[in-house]
Structures are given as structure tokens and as C-alpha cells.
Amino acid sequence: MSDSTLHLAVALDGLGWHPAAWRISPADPTAPLSPRWWATLAGEAERAALDMVTLEDSLDLQSGAADGPDGHTDQVRGRLDALLVAARIAPLTRHIGLLPTTSVTHTEPFHVSTAVATLDHVSGGRAGWRPRVSARRSEARHFGRRDLPILDPTRLDDPETVRLIGDLFAEAGDAVEVVRRLWDSWQDDAEIRDVATGRFVDRDRLHYINFTGRWFSVKGPSIVPRPPQGQPVVAALAHSSVPYAFAARHADVVFVTPADAGHAAAIVAEIRAAEEVVGRTGPPLRILADLLVLLDETPALARGRRARLNNLASTDLHSDATTFTGTPGQLADLIQEWQRSGLAGFRLRPAVLPDDLTAITRALVPALRDRNLFRAGYPGGTLRDLLGLPRPANRYAAESTA
């Protein structure tokens, strides 16, 4: 695979990333509650040979407010569990990576570890996982274990807010460490399965992880044998220095939100510096830029769609990611320009599903191939293979032979 070949992912959420998407989507508003919907979207992405689809999730209803419900009754609310959706569509796909999101703030890492390992087995080595920090008080109140303050987005530099965010990401780091150790708690050859001798498992190749930290104390081993990839792909969404450091320590892929090519170059430099600071020893992070995309055959038609959506939502579209409105060819030009900033690829958020997804798969992807920026098919193998990430050695096997 050429070094110039981009990695492309698509982020799937409900009927699209625009809050009024459900008002103009040709799909039935109940479609996101059907497994057929997700299988259809994943199949469309796979036919274009995209690297992966990511599935959004949270522990609270969708909301535009900083914390808690926003009072809207004219926008989609409610979703299916992302991990369960990924497991359901895994047997219906063959090559594309499946990367669900889960919260690690209120979820036990043992449960997450077994679920993602199961997804990797079910998919034949195509699982990924995006751990998500849950900072909202409304999410915490579903569990009753802690009381988080309401975060004021205009005062993120307040010392107490800085401390809280630091703690939440430190807890997330411990959660990912526990998950990764549990994935290694079975060596690759722990299962013997010898009917003649009656030996199914070699107990010496199952390991206690004996993790004790501020937030978790987990003995192990896992109940699921080591995943086919050894370690499923871990991704993080990062907007600033604290999550950049988290990604540098714990992730394989990081999704970032630059405003332009210069900003993308600055983010890449900051992440590479963070890797140096934390002493990263594995492969460098694959850095993918997020773009919310609203596409049409002409720029005027694309602008018209956006205006119609904004009118239906009674507000302009706001997003943490840069919003691109234009033609697939113009988006290909932007991607080619931004790639020179050191990005490994892009994660595209379709404004309306399935319309903007099919514009990506049937118009953007051919335009990128015409520029020799994207491969024509799948080379085979696991999601790690697709991303150029080696299969990691089992830490406990390495310790036992050291």
C-alpha cells in the first residue's frame, strides 16, 4: 500500500449529524432502531472499501445543552447500544472495521473488555473501540456512585474544572490499561483443545492481571480468549492537550478536529510532541481529521440543503468538527490539501443519512482514487493490518520468556 494512501472512516449516528437530518432523510424516522439500518449503512461503506465505521454512543439522551436535556422535542432522541449494534452487523460484513463507542467513566472495564474481545472474535479481527469520558452530571446520576459538578464550557480553565478533567482522563487511562491487560490475560496458545488427552486449556498460559489503581482493582483473567488481533484497535477523539496525551499513552488512532490545513499541521506536531513526552514505544498514532460533510452535485445545491436543514432546526449548524458544504470533488481537493499536513486520513460525519454517505462512497471515493489517494479494494486481513498496525506481542508471554 502506498504511503500516500489515505485511511477513510465514516462516523455513523442516527439519521445523520445535523439535528434536522431526520426531517429530510428518505429513511423512516424509526430506522435507527432497526438492525437492518445499520447493516445497510455498513454495507454501503464496505462496498467503497472504507477502513472502518464508527458508532456513536453515550450514557445520556442526545442534547445540545452542556449538561442534561435541552428541551428539544423536534430532534432525534434515543439510540441503540453501539457495541451490540456492532456485534449484530459483524457477521453481515467481511472486511470493514467496526468501532463502537462506550463510556469508561461509569462502566466496569472488565465488562467492556469481554464485549470488545467478543466483537473481535465475531468479526474475525475487525473490532475497534473508542473509550469515551462522561463528564456530564446527568450521566453520573444514572448510576448514583458519584456526583459530578455541571461543567461550564466558558470556564474550562477554572482550576477545579482542570482538576476534574484531569481526573476523568486519568480514570479513563486506567480503564484502557485494565482492558488491554485483560485482552492479554490469555496467551495465544492457551487453548489446547486436545480431545484425546482431555486437555482444553493450559492454565499456565492464563494470567492474573492484578491491577490495582485509584479507581479499579481487577484480578483477571478474562473470560474471553485473546482476541484475533491480540489487541483490538483503540481510538480516541481529542480536541486539546489533555486528550492528546491520553491518546498518546493509550490509543492506536486519534480523531482530531482541525479548522484548516495549518491548524491540522499544528495538531499533528502537538500530538507527536505528546508521544515523546509520554515515552510512547509502539507505532505512532494514526491521526485522522474529523469533518462533518454536507454534499451535493453543485455548491449551490449543497448550500441550499444546508440552509433548509438550518431552517428546519431553527438554528445554524454547530459542531466540534469543521463542517464542509460543497461537492464531492471540492471535498477531495480539501482532503488532498489537508493530507499534506501529516494526517493519516479522515473520519467523515455525514450530515444526513443515507444521502451524504452515498455521496461519500459513490462520488468522493472515486474522486480520491482518481488522485491516487485511496485504494481500489481491501488488501485482506484484520483492522490492524488495514491501518498498518502490527499485531502486538502478548505482554505476559513476553514476561514468562524474559
UniProtKB/TrEMBL annotation:
SUPFAM superfamilies: Bacterial luciferase-like. The keyword rRNA-binding does not apply. Residues 28-306 form the Luciferase-like domain. Keywords: Flavoprotein, FMN, Monooxygenase, Oxidoreductase. Gene3D superfamilies: Luciferase-like domain. It holds the Pfam family Bac_luciferase. Coiled coil: none annotated. It comes from the Bacteria. The keyword rRNA-binding does not apply. PANTHER family: ALKANESULFONATE MONOOXYGENASE-RELATED (PTHR30011), C2H2 FINGER DOMAIN TRANSCRIPTION FACTOR (EUROFUNG)-RELATED (PTHR30011:SF16). Belongs to the NtaA/SnaA/DszA monooxygenase family. This is FMNH2-utilizing oxygenase. It comes from Micromonospora andamanensis.
